[in-house]
């Protein structure tokens, strides 16, 4: 009874926070002057422009997925499996871009390339001018989004390498060199994870509008945003967002089915088993320089440029004055949402793994769909659903933001915890059950401690995503309760460049501190 | 082990502190209905927030604001107002141009209120039925880089071969650029306005995401000139950037400079109607117009005799484009399909 109650409660929270709002938007997209009509959907591809936008969206997402995969996997191998020096520090530096809102990365790169930017100290004006003209459009969008999402395949590679049984590699090493072992043994074992990372990057790029909008590259997500902002036509705007969501959902479903088939390949390791490390030998210093140069070019240089334009420290005082309360609120909302999502994610992961309730697949698919749909659709849907006199306590309080975060990022917590649950032998729970332990006791004293690492990773991942969220927060935050990314976004219009740079630096530091603490705890373990 | 324990205790304490601070900041609501007013703001936060803080100080009424900007394309605020129509949360909407206010009026979201502080504001800048009232205006001006030799004098220079590929404007699907294009349609007539827009394409006029970005692109030397709001131009001048502001089409036969007033709207079904009216009265006062004139947004007062900084021209010294804002709003909705096509072809 307790089990069913808990699992259904988790599923219902997802339903009320995400499904109901999106259903209300889909309903409005099927109505035209009060009557059922498919005209919003029929209109989508009636003009050549829509096809061009779709092509642009897919091109951008494909290029970014390809680049991040082909850069991220070698980086993950270097930082997760070799004796390259300062691997912890390099990993942390390369992860910074994913921790901050993507438009801040776009602004910082633009700062570098501008006539008053840092690069003018090193490059001739014509080179700078040529670079900055190529920055606008597809080139800049690919560069910025590749920088932002590079950590996804890199971190997944590092993480998955820890699950590769060293006995397999040792056996192969008897007759082959490392490159062949990596090609034939290691990479095939972690292949499902790598495909997941590429698809995740693809989906995230499809839904991203702030960077293409800033860099003036016309994509479908910008078009959907335009429908909301220029025409105020919710039905049409929702219809515009559906094709991308469907593409994203199909990819995620395909990945989901594929990865389940390949699960037997990843063998859970006994705790404490050491993975094999590749000795780089003579190439160690060169590879270190190469990785460092990459980290300097795509992360440190843009951040230095931000720091350079905020060198007047009085603006930091001003930044804390205008945004200190927003920063506190951001931490608070993210903390609440991450804690709630860890519990919900655990329960959903349990539901999916054990097929514990009849709609287990629906829970999985729904959370994927809510991640793929644009934040604007979800945000407006939340208003339409929760803004009525009976649910005023939700809509006018921080609960509405937490609901938005829960709907949006549920898939991250459930998927991370699910991957951990798959590594736990079912016999553990069965043994406890035979010994007379009830379901709640088994959850609290067997599965929770065994999946502690997964829950912690899920908590931090969701916490950081909530902390950097702009699209949902911007639409639903209660009056007077905005978050730091929203405050930066609204102050960017005509705010002094120094103040904006210092606010961006504040944002970077505020996500780096918890990330560094987690990193420290993880590596020290 | 011990260090790890201390780290856990420190993290626990940190989270507890954050939890408490967040809870305090979000529960301090002040439920006294006339001691609070909720305002949704499309005017840039850097300019509007100090005005609202002054109102709080003077009246003791707490202002809870939701800010949005032209850079954010007012997605948040306008969409929220429309989505909240059946259960409004806002009492007042401070728009940075009259077209959005007109949209709210047509969608039944605005309520009429005629403030006594608006008596000396010209009827041109007010809704005939009192659904919205204008104050502190921006002018649509040309911003040019000082290193450029010749000086554009008219918005029609955007289509002049002399400036081919050297001008930039904000995306006309958004903000004041949309209003300006719609105003041109009402003044020039559809045929001439369409021809003008097509000539912009032929003359390779670039499209930016916002007026602020256009101003920055001119200041950085990427483009020679742009059509922006006067606050964007004055802001860059005061930052010491190498730009100059030109009021366009000022000759006797010129079509005049398009004026975009801020607009304040009372929301239908406002929860704090009395506080809302007090805020509207305050925003329409000459003292607020003076503050907005001397702020970096450098907006032109609509009340006569309000002191202004030297870089601004008083309204009676500008050849103003003669438009009916209601007609402009209707035209704006009418030309949306054309604008979408036009912007998409870029």
End-to-end distance of chain B, in Å? 62 Å
> How would you name the CATH homologous superfamily of the largest domain in chain A?
MetI-like
CATH class of the largest domain in chain A: Mainly Alpha
Number of domains of chain B: 2
Helix and strand pattern of chain B: HEHEHEHEEEHHEHEHEEHHHH
Major beta sheet summary of chain A: 2 strands, antiparallel
Which range best describes the helical content of chain A: under 10%, 10-25%, 25-40%, 40-55%, 55-70% or over 70%?
over 70%
User: What is the β-strand count of chain A?
Assistant: 2
Q: Which segments of chain B are poorly predicted (pLDDT under 50) over 5 or more consecutive residues?
A: 27-31
Q: Shape of chain A, please?
A: globular
CATH class of the largest domain in chain B: Alpha Beta
Secondary-structure content class of chain A: mainly alpha
How much of the sequence lies in strands of chain B comes to: 15-25%
* Radius of gyration of chain B, taken over Cα atoms and rounded to an integer in Å: 22 Å
- Looking at CATH, which topology of the largest domain in chain B would you report? D-Maltodextrin-Binding Protein, domain 2
Overall average residue pLDDT of chain B: 86
- Which sequence of SSEs, written as H and E, runs from N to C of chain A? HEEHHHHHHHHHHHHHHHHHHHHHHHH
Number of domains of chain A: 2
Largest interface: A-B, 60 and 65 residues
Describe it for me?
- The complex is a heterodimer of chains A (525) and B (346).
- Chain A has helices at 2-29, 39-44, 48-81, 87-99, 102-113, 125-135, 138-149, 151-161, 166-173, 178-207, 210-214, 220-231, 234-261, 284-308, 314-354, 360-372, 375-386, 392-395, 399-422, 426-434, 439-450, 452-468, 471-476, 484-491, 497-524; strands spanning 31-32, 35-36.
- By secondary structure, chain A is an all-alpha fold.
- In chain A, α12 (220-231) runs antiparallel to α13 and α24 packs antiparallel against α25.
- Chain A is globular.
- The model of chain A is unreliable at 263-267 (pLDDT under 50).
- In chain B, strands 1, 2, 3, 4, 5, 6, 7, 8, 9 and 10 form a 10-stranded mixed β-sheet that branches.
- Residues 27-31 of chain B have low confidence and may be disordered.
- In chain B, α2 links the parallel β1 and β2 (62-67).
- Chain B has 2 domains: 31-137 and 260-313, 3-Layer(aba) Sandwich (D-Maltodextrin-Binding Protein, domain 2), CATH 3.40.190; 138-258 and 333-344, 3-Layer(aba) Sandwich (D-Maltodextrin-Binding Protein, domain 2).
- The termini of chain B are far apart.
- Chains A and B meet through α12, α15, α17, α24 and α25 of A and α1, β1, α2, β2 and α3 of B.
């Amino acid at each position: 009874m307790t089990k069913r109650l808990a699992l259904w409660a988790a599923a219902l929270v997802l339903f009320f926070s995400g499904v109901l709002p999106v259903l209300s938007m889909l309903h409005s997209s099927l109505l035209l002057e009060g009557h059922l009509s498919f005209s919003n959907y029929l209109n989508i591809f009636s003009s050549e422009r829509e096809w061009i936008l779709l092509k642009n969206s897919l091109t951008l997402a494909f290029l970014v997925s390809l680049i991040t995969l082909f850069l991220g996997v070698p980086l993950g191998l270097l930082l997760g499996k070799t004796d390259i020096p300062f691997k912890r520090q390099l990993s942390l530096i390369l992860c910074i871009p994913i921790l901050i809102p993507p438009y801040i990365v776009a602004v910082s790169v633009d700062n570098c390339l501008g006539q008053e930017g840092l690069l003018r100290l090193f490059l001739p004006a014509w080179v700078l001018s040529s670079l900055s003209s190529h920055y606008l459009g597809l080139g800049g969008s690919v560069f910025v989004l590749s920088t932002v999402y590079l950590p996804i395949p890199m971190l997944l590679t590092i993480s998955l390498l820890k699950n590769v049984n060293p006995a397999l590699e040792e056996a192969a090493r008897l007759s082959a060199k490392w490159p062949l072992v990596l090609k034939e043994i290691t990479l095939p074992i972690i292949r499902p994870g790598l495909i997941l990372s590429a698809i995740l990057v693809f989906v995230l790029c499809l839904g991203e509008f702030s960077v293409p909008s800033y860099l003036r590259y016309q994509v479908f997500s910008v078009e959907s945003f335009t429908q909301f902002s220029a025409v105020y036509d919710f039905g049409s705007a929702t219809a515009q967002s559906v094709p991308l969501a469907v593409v994203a959902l199909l990819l995620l479903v395909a990945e989901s089915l594929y990865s389940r088939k390949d699960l037997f390949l990843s063998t859970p390791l006994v705790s404490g088993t050491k993975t094999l490390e590749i000795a780089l030998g003579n190439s160690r210093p060169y590879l270190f320089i190469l990785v460092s140069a990459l980290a300097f070019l795509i992360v440190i240089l843009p951040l230095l440029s931000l720091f350079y334009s905020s060198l007047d420290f009085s603006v930091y005082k001003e930044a804390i004055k205008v945004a200190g309360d927003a920063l506190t609120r951001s931490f608070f909302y993210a903390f609440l949402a991450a804690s709630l999502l860890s519990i919900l994610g655990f329960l959903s992961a349990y539901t999916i793994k054990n097929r514990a309730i009849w709609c287990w697949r629906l829970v999985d698919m729904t959370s994927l769909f809510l991640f793929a749909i644009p934040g604007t659709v979800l945000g407006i849907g939340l208003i339409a659903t929760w803004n009525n006199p009976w649910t005023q306590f939700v809509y006018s309080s921080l609960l509405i933001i937490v609901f938005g975060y829960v709907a949006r990022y549920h898939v991250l917590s459930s998927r991370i915890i699910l991957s951990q649950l798959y590594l736990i032998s079912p016999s553990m729970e069965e043994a406890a059950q035979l010994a007379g332990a009830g379901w709640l006791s088994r959850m609290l004293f067997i599965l929770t401690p065994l999946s502690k690492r997964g829950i912690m990773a899920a908590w931090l991942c969701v916490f950081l995503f909530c902390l950097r969220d702009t699209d949902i927060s911007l639409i639903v935050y209660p009056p007077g309760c905005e978050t730091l990314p929203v405050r930066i976004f609204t102050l960017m219009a005509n705010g002094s460049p120094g103040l904006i740079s210092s606010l961006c630096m504040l944002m970077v530091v505020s996500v780096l501190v918890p990330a560094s603490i987690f990193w420290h705890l993880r590596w020290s373990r | 082990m011990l260090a790890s324990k201390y780290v856990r205790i420190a993290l626990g304490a940190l989270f507890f502190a954050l939890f408490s601070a967040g809870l305090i900041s979000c529960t301090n609501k002040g439920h006294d209905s006339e001691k609070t007013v909720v305002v949704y703001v499309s005017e840039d936060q850097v300019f509007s927030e100090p005005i609202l803080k002054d109102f709080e100080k003077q009246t003791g009424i707490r202002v809870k604001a939701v800010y949005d900007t032209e850079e954010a394309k007012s997605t948040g605020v306008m969409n929220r107002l429309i989505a909240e129509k059946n259960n409004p949360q806002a009492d007042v909407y401070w728009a940075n141009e009259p077209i959005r206010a007109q949209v709210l009026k047509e969608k039944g979201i605005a309520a009429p209120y005629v403030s006594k502080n608006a008596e000396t504001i010209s009827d041109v800048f007010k809704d005939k039925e009192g659904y919205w009232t204008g104050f502190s205006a921006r002018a649509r001006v040309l911003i040019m880089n000082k290193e450029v030799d010749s000086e554009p004098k008219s918005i029609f220079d955007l289509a002049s071969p002399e400036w081919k590929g050297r001008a930039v404007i904000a995306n006309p699907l958004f903000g004041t650029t949309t209003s300006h294009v719609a105003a041109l349609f009402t003044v020039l007539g559809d045929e001439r306005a369409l021809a003008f827009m097509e000539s912009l394409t032929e003359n390779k006029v670039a499209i930016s995401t916002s007026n602020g970005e256009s101003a920055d692109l001119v200041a950085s030397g990427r483009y020679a000139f742009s059509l922006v709001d006067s606050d964007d131009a004055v802001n860059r001048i005061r930052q010491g950037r190498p730009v100059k502001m030109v009021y366009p089409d000022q000759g006797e036969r010129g079509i005049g400079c398009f004026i975009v007033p801020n607009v304040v709207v009372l929301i239908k079904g406002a929860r704090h109607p009395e506080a809302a009216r007090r805020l509207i009265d305050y925003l329409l006062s000459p003292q607020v117009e003076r503050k907005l004139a001397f702020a970096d947004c450098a907006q032109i007062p609509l009340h006569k005799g309000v002191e202004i900084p030297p870089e601004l021209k008083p309204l009676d010294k500008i050849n103003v484009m003669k438009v009916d804002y209601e007609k402009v709003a209707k035209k704006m909705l009418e030309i949306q399909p054309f604008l979408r096509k036009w912007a998409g072809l870029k």
